[in-house]
Amino acid sequence: MNDAQPLQYREESPFSDSLGIRLISAGKAEVLARMTATPALSNHNGVLHGGAVMGLADHAGGTAAFMNLHRGEATTTIESKTNFLRPVRTGDVAHARCIVLHKGGKTMVLQTTITRGDGKVAAIVTQTQMIMEWQEPD
Fewest CB atoms less than 10 Å from the CB: which of 29, 65, 87, 137? Predict the structure, then answer.
C-alpha cells in the first residue's frame, strides 16, 4: 500500500444533495439514509423515479464501501442490480439500509434495502464495488 492520504469522508455529495439524500448513520456494518419523494424526483405516475431510488442506493452503497476501505484505497461501483418491488409515492420517504455482504481484497458486495414510510420493501439493490489504490489525477 502506498502513503497516499485517504479520501476525505463527506457526509453528503453535490449529487446526493440535489436528490435530498440525508445520511442517518454510517459505519462499517451498516449505513442508513433517507430521501423524500418530491415531485421533482417523481415520474409521471406520481411515484419516486427509479433513477432516484438507484441514486439513493448508490449513495448508501458507496458510503458503506468507503467506510470499509483501508488507508490509500478508493472504490468504484462496477455492477449494480435493482429489483423494484413497490412504488414510493410522492410525499413519502424512502429509507435505505445498506449492509456489506462480502469484503474481499479487490471487491465488496453490498446490499441496500429501500423501504417506504409504511415499512414495506420498495426495492433491493445489490452492488459490486471494486477496491483500488487511490491515485491523484494528473
Answer: 137
Rounded to two decimals, the pTM is 0.88
Measured between alpha carbons, how far is 130 from 83 in angstroms, rounded to an integer? 21
Domain residue ranges in the chain = 14-133
Residues contacting residue 74 through CB under 8 Å, at least 6 positions apart:
7, 131, 132, 133, 134, 135
Round to whole Å and give the CA distance between 98 and 52: 16
Cα–Cα distance between 122 and 81 in angstroms, integer? 14
pLDDT digits (tens, 9 = 90+) for 37-61: 999 999 999 999 999 999 999 999 9
Buried-state track 63-89, b at ≥16 Cβ within 10 A, e below 16 = bbbbbbbeebbbbeeeebebebeebbe
Rg (CA), the chain: 15
